[in-house]
C-alpha cells in the first residue's frame, strides 16, 4: 500500500470490460480498491483476483458509506500515502446516499482524477446488473461478451443421487454458494476439477431434477473421460443448450442427455483448451 501511486475505485463485481477499462489506466504500482457491498455474486470475494494482475485492496461499504467527500479522500490518503492518481468511471458515486461524484473527488483530491467514459458493447452500457439479468435468462453468450471472459461458478463436491453413473451419465454434483446461478437448463461448459490446471469439455445441468427426484442440482458430465473429483470443481459457461425439461421416463431423459453431449462436444471441439 505504501508504494501505491494510482488506484481505481468501485464495487467491481464482474470484473467486466467496463471495469477493465479503468484497470488499463493504472500503472504497474496501481491498486484496485474494491468497495465490498456484500451483494457481489458474479465474482465474489477473492475470485476478482483472477481477472487482473493488479493488487486488490478491499474496503467494507459499511466503513465508508457515512463519510463525506473530504473524509473519503482523507481515508484514501492515509491508506495510500503516495497516491497521485484516482481512476473512476463516468457514473462513480460515493458517500452518504451516494451523493458525491467524480466532481467532488476532483475538487478535493490534490492529484489527478481520471474519469473513464462509458464502456458499451453493441451500443449497450456494460454493467454488472445487466450481466446478472442475462444469466437469469440463460443468455450466456451475451453475459460473456459483457464480461470479456466466460462466466464461471465454483462449488464444493457433494454426493448425487447415484443414478447418473448407474443408469444415465456420470456427473460431478456441486454445492454452489455465493455465485449467481444461470437459469435452469443445460449448458456447454468447461469444467476444472480440484486444482487441475486443465479445463475439460463438459455438459452441465442446473435445476430441479423434475424427471427424477425433483431436488435441485448443479452437475457436470465430463466429455473426455470419467474423472474423480475430490473436493471442488469450477464450471465455466460457454453456451446455453436447452431448458430444463420433465421427461416421462429415464430412457427419454437419457436420449435427451445424449443429444446434449453431442451438441456440447461439437461446440467445444473448436476451443483451444
Ligand atoms: C446434460 C444433462 C442434462 C440433464 N437434463 C435434465 C432435464 O432436462 N430434466 C431433468 O429432470 N434432469 C436432467 N438432468 C439431471 C438428471 O436427472 C440427473 O443427472 C440424474 O438425476 C442423475 O443424477 P445424479 O448424478 O445425482 O445421480 C440432466 C443431467 C445432465 C448431465
Ligand atoms: N460501463 C462502464 N464504463 C465505464 N466505467 C464503468 C462502467 N461500469 C462501471 N464503471 C466504473 O467502474 C467502477 C465500478 O463500478 P460498479 O458500480 O462496481 O460497476 P457496475 O455498474 O458494473 O456494477 C466505477 O468507478 C464505475 O464508474
UniProtKB/TrEMBL annotation:
Catalyzes the phosphorylation of riboflavin to FMN followed by the adenylation of FMN to FAD. This is Riboflavin biosynthesis protein. InterPro entries: FAD_synthase, Riboflavin_kinase, Riboflavin_kinase_bac, Riboflavin_kinase_bac/euk, Riboflavin_kinase_dom_sf, Rossmann-like_a/b/a_fold. Keywords: ATP-binding, FAD, Flavoprotein, FMN, Kinase, Multifunctional enzyme, Nucleotide-binding, Nucleotidyltransferase, Transferase. Residues 146-269 form the Riboflavin kinase domain. It comes from Sulfurimonas autotrophica (strain ATCC BAA-671 / DSM 16294 / JCM 11897 / OK10). It catalyses: FMN + ATP + H(+) = FAD + diphosphate; riboflavin + ATP = FMN + ADP + H(+). It comes from the Bacteria. Pathway: Cofactor biosynthesis; FMN biosynthesis; FMN from riboflavin (ATP route): step 1/1; Cofactor biosynthesis; FAD biosynthesis; FAD from FMN: step 1/1. The lineage of its organism: Bacteria, Pseudomonadati, Campylobacterota, Epsilonproteobacteria, Campylobacterales. GO terms for biological process: FAD biosynthetic process; FMN biosynthetic process; riboflavin biosynthetic process. Its EC number is 2.7.1.26, 2.7.7.2. The keyword Glycoprotein does not apply.
Amino acid at each position: 500500500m505504501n508504494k501505491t501511486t494510482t488506484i481505481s475505485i468501485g464495487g467491481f463485481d464482474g470484473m467486466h470490460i467496463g471495469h477493465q477499462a479503468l484497470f488499463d489506466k493504472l500503472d504497474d504500482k496501481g491498486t484496485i480498491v474494491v468497495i465490498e457491498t456484500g451483494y457481489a455474486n458474479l465474482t465474489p470475494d477473492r475470485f476478482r483476483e483472477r481477472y487482473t494482475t493488479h493488487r486488490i485492496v478491499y474496503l467494507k461499504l459499511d466503513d465508508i458509506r457515512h463519510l463525506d467527500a473530504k473524509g473519503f479522500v482523507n481515508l484514501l490518503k492515509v491508506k495510500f500515502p503516495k497516491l497521485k492518481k484516482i481512476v473512476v468511471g463516468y457514473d462513480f458515486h460515493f458517500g452518504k446516499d451516494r451523493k458525491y461524484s467524480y466532481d467532488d473527488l476532483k475538487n478535493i483530491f490534490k492529484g489527478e482524477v481520471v474519469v473513464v467514459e462509458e464502456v458499451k458493447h453493441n451500443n449497450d452500457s456494460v454493467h454488472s446488473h445487466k450481466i446478472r439479468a442475462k444469466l437469469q435468462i440463460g443468455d450466456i453468450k451475451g453475459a460473456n461478451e459483457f464480461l470479456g471472459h466466460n462466466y464461471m461458478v465454483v462449488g464444493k463436491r457433494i454426493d448425487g443421487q447415484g443414478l447418473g453413473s448407474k443408469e444415465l451419465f456420470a456427473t460431478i454434483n456441486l454445492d454452489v454458494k455465493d455465485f449467481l446461478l444461470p437459469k435452469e437448463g443445460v449448458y456447454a461448459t468447461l469444467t476444472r476439477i480440484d486444482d487441475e490446471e486443465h479445463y475439460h469439455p463438459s455438459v452441465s445441468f442446473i435445476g430441479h431434477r423434475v424427471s427424477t427426484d425433483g431436488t435441485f442440482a448443479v452437475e457436470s458430465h465430463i466429455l473426455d473421460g470419467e474423472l474423480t473429483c475430490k473436493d471442488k470443481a469450477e464450471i465455466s459457461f460457454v453456451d446455453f443448450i436447452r431448458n430444463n425439461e420433465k421427461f416421462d421416463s429415464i430412457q427419454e431423459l437419457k436420449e435427451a442427455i445424449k443429444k446434449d453431449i453431442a451438441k456440447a462436444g461439437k461446440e467445444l471441439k473448436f476451443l483451444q483448451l
